[in-house]
Write a structure and sequence with these properties.
Layout (H helix, E strand, L loop, with lengths): L1 H11 L4 H14 L2 H11 L10 H12 L3 H11 L2 H8 L11 H9 L6 H14 L2 H12 L8 H12 L3 H7 L11 H6 L14 E2 L1 E2 L13 E7 L2 E8 L2 E6 L15 H4 L4 E11 L2 E2 L2 H8 L6 H6 L2 E11 L2 E2 L5 H12 L8 E3 L8 H9 L1 H4 L1 E8 L7 E2 L4 E5 L3 E12 L8 E10 L2 E8 L5 H14 L2 E3 L2 E3 L5 E6 L1 E4 L7 E4 L2 E5 L11 H11 L1
Parallel strand pairs: 1-12, 2-13, 8-10
Antiparallel strand pairs: 3-11, 4-5, 4-6, 6-7, 6-8, 8-9, 11-13, 14-15, 14-18, 14-19, 15-16, 17-18, 19-22, 20-21
Helix pairs in contact: 1-2, 1-9, 2-10, 4-5, 5-6, 6-9
Length: about 525
């Protein structure tokens, strides 16, 4: 645990990529194999789920530190990080415990289902015995706020330096739904079991948002254009006589979309398709809200299968005949994919994502403008000579999304942020007019400059009308332009509306609150979406 805490501190104290990679590589060379495995798990998004509520942790820390709860709460409001607040407010630990990282995390995993006394005693034991730096990291692990400022790609690069294994091969080995409690470092990294590879997806190739006009990309004949679908990115794997469906977040979705099991009969063994899972009916995509009804369901009843049928629109072929196709040019992969899917009957929920024919960028821009009517978010542009590479890399794959929808809304509540924004009010609730009443409809916390956040914070402190814990009600005076990617009906919100990816575009200093948009304007956007 001490070595992991030292790594955490080293990564926290630098913004230099080379320094982060060097620190990680040194750790991977020296740490025990079980600790290396858990570190890979933590840095690839496999953090243990929160086993203890933050309210309980606050109560236990206040009692152990012998301070009133209100003082801990006020300290948290200033520090902006619960793990750091608890570490600072507790009396010094005796530092007698130096357990390995693996044993701490395995110990914590046994607390699932334990009674409150057992969980409290375990946490207090670590608080009392860990050195101060290790205790801070321990707190971050149990509060669910663990971040190390290292991307998965940087972690993989460091691991490649430490082991001598090629980075692309390592990236592939680390994919899938493996559990550090039932895996070993040797079996995952050094000597993987070939039998476990049948279900393993490939690292996803990602695109950047295009920054300049697309005509800067050169000859249109060098590019493939297709719709950017608004669904769940997934890989359909057909290997070893079975099939598996993985999301981009490495979540196994096989049981949630059983209709895609048609691949067992329709696809040859040894192929992997990359595509988009969409709600699909009558030859066109359903709203994303329909697909959402199935995302959290591991057992899908027949009624839901009928209400929200899905299809996989495939746009790449990553494996064919058991051979890795990713290094081949996209033009070749696409031709093979077309041959593979063309014979499938219409009632099979596997189909090719259509290419958009175009001779010049101007014509393609016209096609893009109608994307919402087709149920897409814009266009994808892919260089026909490109390989399928892991992660996000500039140059070969671009997304040319539609401009977002926007409305002007009134801020009615403000809340302080976290981390470096703990002393600023950055999280806002916005409302639009419904008759003479302001109806809250969304929250947003990004899009403004630090200077604007500081100015708004000063205004909030001077104009607070009421306090509800960390939330402050303010006069409905400040207007902001809110951008969002999608809009849908919602029974959970008073407005009856929910937005996708809302953020602030600008502070409308030029507009009084009375001129903010109305709920009917949002309804019109919803109706226009189809």
């Amino acid at each position: 645990m001490d070595a992991f805490a030292d790594l955490f501190r080293a990564l926290d104290q630098t913004t230099r990529t080379a320094a982060k990679v060097a620190a990680l590589a040194a750790y991977f060379r020296a740490a025990p194999e079980p600790d290396r495995l858990w570190t890979i798990a933590l840095l690839s998004g496999r953090r243990p789920r929160r086993l203890i509520g933050t309210g309980q942790l606050r109560d236990w820390a206040a009692a152990r530190a012998d301070v009133p709860l209100w003082l801990l709460e006020d300290s948290y409001a200033v520090a902006g990080d619960l793990a750091e607040t608890i570490a600072l407010i507790l009396p010094p630990g005796d530092g007698r415990a130096t357990p390995p990282l693996a044993s701490v995390l395995e110990d914590l995993s046994t607390l699932a289902g334990a009674d409150e006394d057992t969980r409290r005693n375990a946490v207090l034991r670590y608080w009392d015995s860990l050195p101060d730096t290790s205790r801070l990291v321990f707190n971050k692990l149990i509060t669910g706020g663990f971040r190390m400022g290292v991307s998965r790609k940087l972690m993989t690069r460091a691991l490649a330096q430490a082991t001598g294994i090629d980075e692309p091969e390592l990236a592939h080995r680390l994919m899938g739904d493996w559990d550090p409690r039932r895996m070993t470092f040797r079996r995952l990294v050094l000597d993987p079991d070939p039998g476990e590879a049948d279900a393993r997806p490939y690292p996803f190739c990602l695109a950047y948002q295009i920054e300049d006009a697309p005509d800067t990309l050169g000859d249109p004949a060098d590019w493939l254009a297709e719709d950017k679908w608004d669904g769940i990115r997934g890989q359909l794997i057909r290997r070893g006589g079975g099939w598996h469906l993985w999301s981009r977040g490495e979540e196994l979705l096989t049981d949630r979309f059983p209709e895609l099991g048609a691949s067992l009969d329709m696809l040859p063994d040894g192929c992997v398709l990359d595509g988009e899972i969409l709600g699909w009916r009558d030859g066109r995509p359903l709203p994303f809200a329909d697909l959402q009804t199935r995302i959290g369901r591991k057992n899908v009843p027949k009624s839901l299968l009928a209400k929200a049928p899905v299809a996989l629109l495939a746009y790449d072929l990553l494996e064919w005949g058991g051979c890795d196709m990713r290094a081949r040019p996209l033009a070749e992969r696409r031709a093979r994919l077309t041959e593979l899917l063309a014979p499938l009957p219409d009632d099979v929920p596997l189909r090719l994502s259509p290419a958009v024919p175009f001779d010049d960028w101007g014509a393609l821009a016209g096609y893009r403008r109608d994307a919402r009517a087709r149920g897409s978010e814009g266009l994808m542009l892919k260089r026909l000579s490109s390989a399928y590479r892991d992660g996000r890399r500039k140059g070969d794959w671009w997304k040319w999304k539609l401009d977002p929808m926007t409305v002007d809304a009134v801020m009615i509540y403000a809340q302080a942020g976290h981390g470096r924004r703990a002393n600023l009010f950055t999280d806002y609730t916005f409302a639009v007019w419904d008759g003479e009443t302001l109806v809250p409809f969304t929250k947003a916390y990004s899009g403004l400059t630090d200077a604007e956040f500081r100015e708004i914070t000063t205004w909030v402190r001077k104009h607070t009308l009421e306090r509800f814990g960390p939330v402050r009600r303010v006069p409905p005076e400040l207007v902001f332009e809110i951008a969002f990617e999608g809009i849908q009906d919602s029974r959970r919100h008073k407005s009856g509306i929910a937005l996708r990816f809302p953020r602030m575009v600008r502070w409308r200093r030029d507009k009084p609150a009375s001129e903010a948009n109305r709920l009917s304007d949002l309804r019109a956007l919803l109706d226009a979406r189809g």
